[in-house]
Amino acid sequence: MKDLSQLDLNLLRVFDAVARERHVTRAASRLNLSQPAVSNALNRLRGALGDELFLRAPQGVEPTSLALALMQPVAEVLDRLQETLAATAPFDPATSDRVFTLAFSEYAEAILAPPLFERLAREAPGILVAIRHADRTNAGALLEGDEAQLAIAMLAEPTALYTRLRLLPEAFMILVRPGHPLLEGPLSLERYTAFPHLLHSPNGSRDGAMDRILKDLGHARRLGAVVAHLSAVPSVLLGTDMVMTLSSRLARQLSAAHGLALLPLPEAAATATQHTRLSMIFHRRFEADQGHAWLRRLLLTLAREVVEDCPADGKEGSRAVAD
After folding, report:
1. CA nearest 133: which of 159, 111, 101, 156?
2. 158 FRET partner, CA 20 to 30 A, in 135, 183, 187, 291?
3. How far apart are the C-alpha atoms of 272 and 267, rounded to whole Å?
């Protein structure tokens, strides 16, 4: 096809959804359309372009060479259109019914979600925020696939297509059962690594942030168990001699709720973690989106309030940082 006037441009939204999902049913769900409606739109597009575009595969569909060539320009056109419309559309949080999908680590959700939903209930009751899990292994894919509008976790520096704002400064603490042997005597790296460690890892990874820090310090720890959910942590710690290293804010919460004992990290490890922060990352196409900008400002405000109410190091006067 050389004449775009013959093409129903609404079909490009269907093409883009199928290209991203590689599955017709999931694309239909993404577009809030029925599966037959998406199949019909694909057939019309195939006829207009003279190409199959997507071929059946065991797990869904696979793009043809023409579809592969079209994927990026179609996505860019639709993103630019969405960006332009969002930038010019008025936004009033009190009357908006927008839906935002956010990708949070479990820690970010535990710390930021409660005050976020409290504020939304007061100031933006029609807005729906859906939170899905993110960590350093999948946050980029969620943003790239448009499955989340922003991510908050402990994340590496993104590519130039994304903006990064640094949020909560973090300190870490050790959780153990009352009467644990580690509570007696000096707390050295040698004693800290002598006990089996409990790791919280929703994606099943056995490589935690502390492992990289300890490696740089010339030490290694032995994992005693890996759990996918924080709800399992208190019972595991109370019934074993395992130790767990968590963000101090979350460690304090679990200690107060379940009677677990708290310890600071050994000095060398504490120094190595002092620059750790949660980061907010989002695609630059959302920078001019008034609704997205309002939500970002709200999250930055909540992060500052969390720091003021519960500093990571237990001292008053810390501030959240955006850069």
Report:
1. 101
2. 291
3. 9
CA dist., res. 129 & res. 281, Å (int): 17
The whole-angstrom separation of Cα 229 and Cα 166 is: 25
Confidence (pLDDT) at 323: 30
Tokens linked to 256: 């107060």
User: For position 112, what pLDDT does the model report?
Assistant: 94
Q: CA-to-CA distance for 293 and 91, rounded, in angstroms?
A: 10
Residue 268 is encoded by which pair of tokens? Answer: 């060398």
Residues (pLDDT < 50) of the chain are 316-323
| Reported pTM | 0.65
CB atoms within 10 A of CB 170: 21
pLDDT for residue 277: 79
Q: What is the pLDDT of residue 204?
A: 77
d(CA 217, CA 268): 8
